[in-house]
Amino acid sequence: MLRPRIIPCLLVHQGGLVKTQGFKSPKYVGDPINAVKIFNEKESDELIVLDIDATANGAEPNFDLIAKLAEECRMPLCYGGGIKTAAQAARIIDMGVEKVAISSAAIANPALLSEIAAAIGRQSVVAVLDVRKRTGLFSRGYEVCTHNARESRKVDPVELAVQLQDAGAGEIVINSVDCDGEMKGYDLDLAKQVRKVLKVPTTFLGGAGSLGDIEQLVNTVGVVGAAAGSLFVFKGKYRAVLISYPTREQKDQLFSTPAA
């Protein structure tokens, strides 16, 4: 039986592990390699690591860090940040990483996903869309952002998700800018819109503040990936840094009720 995946998402900024809120004000929370070791011990389903500096600074992937992560990680690892070519993606996969995540480069050139899929296999290609609600008196719906939400693309994220799926993405990650770091729950309206039209595995990121939020997501849209950052690195209302992950028993209890 297929089960939802619970996926910690780690953000790397200036070599350290950070957590943002609304894609701003990165707070240092530790060392990425140490975090990976802890998630190994806790038997995490998967792990997403995103270098939030690479694309914004026009840099290539941090291959030294990737090699260290891949050597340490004992769970499926998805890495994103600065990937612009099929050759870069293939090099990362050769290091032992299971998936590569592409965002702004894929949005600018969806055909890149086809090239990467041909090089490493579609199952290893993840397209990430950073999405936020449009602002303004007469604005409605959502828009897609790039470069740490500093640039906006006036395209419908649901339509773009389908386009990237058709171009070669084997998985789509929808990351809510508005919910990032808020710990008040996922954007379920957005999740329903996206889930309705996609055929490939889909993961939602942004907003989880409790296991109940993950349960609500799964009960709303079915078997998907439930990714989170703050939930797994903060504890309590003062957000003390403490890495956590649900036990097997907690996950069994969480998904004991059939999802929609």
TrEMBL record:
GO biological process: L-histidine biosynthetic process
Keyword line: Amino-acid biosynthesis, Histidine biosynthesis, Lyase
Pfam family name, one: His_biosynth
Pathway(s): Amino-acid biosynthesis; L-histidine biosynthesis; L-histidine from 5-phospho-alpha-D-ribose 1-diphosphate: step 5/9
InterPro entries: Aldolase_TIM, His_biosynth, HisF, IGPS_HisA/HisF, RibuloseP-bd_barrel
Catalytic activity, as annotated: 5-[(5-phospho-1-deoxy-D-ribulos-1-ylimino)methylamino]-1-(5-phospho-beta-D-ribosyl)imidazole-4-carboxamide + L-glutamine = D-erythro-1-(imidazol-4-yl)glycerol 3-phosphate + 5-amino-1-(5-phospho-beta-D-ribosyl)imidazole-4-carboxamide + L-glutamate + H(+)
Domain of life: Bacteria
Keyword Lyase: yes
Gene3D superfamilies: Aldolase class I
EC number: 4.3.2.10
Entry GO MF terms: imidazoleglycerol-phosphate synthase activity; lyase activity
Similarity-based family: Belongs to the HisA/HisF family.
Function description: IGPS catalyzes the conversion of PRFAR and glutamine to IGP, AICAR and glutamate. The HisF subunit catalyzes the cyclization activity that produces IGP and AICAR from PRFAR using the ammonia provided by the HisH subunit.
Oligomeric form and interacting partners: Heterodimer of HisH and HisF.
PANTHER family: IMIDAZOLE GLYCEROL PHOSPHATE SYNTHASE HISHF, IMIDAZOLE GLYCEROL PHOSPHATE SYNTHASE SUBUNIT HISF/H IGP SYNTHASE SUBUNIT HISF/H
This protein's name: imidazole glycerol-phosphate synthase
Lineage: Bacteria, Pseudomonadati, Pseudomonadota, Betaproteobacteria, Neisseriales
